Amino acid sequence: MAAAFELTILGSSSATPTSKRHPTAQLLNVAERFFLIDCGEATQIQLRKYKIRFQRIDHIFISHLHGDHYLGLMGLLSSLHLLGRKKELTIYHPPGLKTIIDLQFELSGTVLNYKINWHEHDIHKAGIIFEDHVLSVETVLLNHRIPCCGFIFREKEKMFSLDKEKLAEYGISREFFSDLKNGKDIMPDGMRKFRNEELTKGRYASRSYAFVSDTRYNEKVIEAVKDVDLLYHESTFLHEMLERAEKTFHTTALEAGLAAKKAGVKKLVIGHFSVRYTDLLPLLEEARTEFPQTQLAEEGTKFTIPEVFLVNK
């Protein structure tokens, strides 16, 4: 069964919600590990709407402390408590968020049923903030009005698939299987050396997703997200409003498309749309002038990165 790598858009509006769009929130499923990325207002309502179980989320990533990216967090944490959560929850966050949440729980006299592990970002240096045997998550420093970061989710390198017929033909014993799966050559009898590709069929490619939250167009970010399978990049304005984008430290749709093209990504998703736009088609068309493989971050949309088997040649 193929391992999941699927992004669900929960919110795609910018600073304020509209009747049809909610502030930023996304859910990423990597091999049944569920990561919530930002938590704007109504995130928990959107999770219910799209039938995503709250309790499956064990990691929450907050990009920065503008309200449209975290004001739904207090409500979600409270609901998890009321629903009887016992599992620990880890929140990766910029400085100050823990103080905000702790104060609200203190003043409401709430003692949570579960433990929150607070993991504060280094706002001056990008680096890996989460890692297990399946994937790693690293931060990307962005150029916004306040400290802000993006996140890159990368699968670890996959193991090689063994060629059972070849193994049987050459009488290779099981003690060498682990080395072969990990890409090593072997010398079972101390005389003949077998190259890994002689005894394996290939392996699945590792997949990657980059979340670029609020930022001005930034060449350093382009380098950081180079070659990812899926890039989400904020696209608050059309390029005709470049002056406004520069003043508010945001990106235009045209610039997002250019960033995706320069980074050589496979697919671009644009979001964080200004409330001035009821019709999003012009933003999509503008981004596609630079990068045709662009789609809108419309709420409820799922973006799946399929598994690709790399055959040994």
Task: Explain this structure.
There is one protein chain. By secondary structure, this protein is α/β, with parallel strands linked by helices. 25% of the residues lie in helices and 27% in strands. The protein has ten helices and 17 strands. It has helices at residues 43-49, 73-82, 97-108, 164-170, 177-181, 196-199, 219-224, 242-248, 253-263, 281-288; strands at residues 5-11, 25-30, 33-39, 57-61, 89-93, 116-120, 128-131, 135-141, 149-155, 161-162, 200-204, 208-212, 230-234, 267-271, 294-296, 302-304, 309-311. Strands 6-5-4-3-2-1-16 form a seven-stranded mixed sheet. Strands 7-8-9-12-13-14-15 form a seven-stranded mixed sheet, with helices on one face. It has a three-stranded antiparallel sheet with strand order 10-11-17. Strand 14 (267-271), helix 10 and strand 15 form a beta-alpha-beta unit. It is globular and about 70 Å long. The two termini are 24 Å apart. The mean pLDDT is 95.
Secondary-structure element order, as H and E?
Answer: EEEHEHEHEEEEEHHHEEHEHHEHEEE
- Principal-axis shape equals globular
* Biggest sheet features: 7 strands, mixed
Strand ordering within the main sheet = 6-5-4-3-2-1-16
C-alpha-based Rg, rounded: 22 Å
Structural class given helices, strands, pairing? Answer: alpha/beta
Q: Which stretches are low in confidence, meaning pLDDT under 50 for 5 or more residues running?
A: none
| Record field, number of beta strands | 17
Distance between the termini: 24 Å
* Percentage of residues assigned to helices: 10-25%
Chain-averaged pLDDT: 95
Please report the number of helical segments.
Answer: 10
Beta-strand content? 25-35%
